[in-house]
Amino acid sequence: MTSLRIQGIGMTSQRTRDRLIARLKEEGIKSIAVLNAMRATPRHLFVDEALASRAYEDTALPIGHGQTISQPYIVARMTEALLEGGLLQRVLEVGTGSGYQTAVLARLVSEVFSVERIKALLLQAQGRFRDLGLRNIRAKYSDGTMGMPESAPFDGIMVTAAPEGIPLALVRQLAVGGRMVLPVGDRDMQVLVRVTRTEDGYEKEMLERVVFVPLLGGVV
Hints:
Elements: H1 3-7, H2 14-26, H3 32-39, E1 61-64, E2 67-69, H4 72-83, E3 90-94, H5 100-106, E4 111-116, H6 119-131, E5 137-141, E6 154-159, H7 168-171, E7 174-185, E8 190-198, E9 201-210
Parallel strand pairs: 3-4, 3-6, 4-5, 6-7
Antiparallel strand pairs: 1-2, 7-8, 8-9
């Protein structure tokens, strides 16, 4: 991929990206590290070229297969919530999707492990990681509800689709003191939750209302 395509022009230019970052600040995102990671990540590469001119709008966009690339505010909010207790070394992402959230995380933590149940999306995302030179991502085609137990424990887990309750299989893959950020609920009511693993279970805190696609099992 050419450096010009990565840098972007017109509606995909760095100036347009900077305007998005300014909006995220206005909406309450405080972490400079998260804002800088998003400024450095060309979101237009993670959507279809026909939608590239809309890549820096603060809105979710379709990526095919009934999935979406999350609204930039939600990417920033979830990343900030995950990192609020301090930087993390090893993070599991459940739901690679377009790979945009993965790429943002890869600029902030030492290792990102990501699982995706839709093979076509995973292959696209892996190509984008290569184009951007992101070598600290290990992406796997797998049922995300199972996590990645062979690589556990993780300091952090981010789930980018909504289960109806907190998945204990994923809680068990957190190190003690580790944090998981995920949307929880059904199609009518979802809340962003931060779970912290304790010696004898977990604690949870509710953050804000959100809307995500449901977390599904199996692979396609």
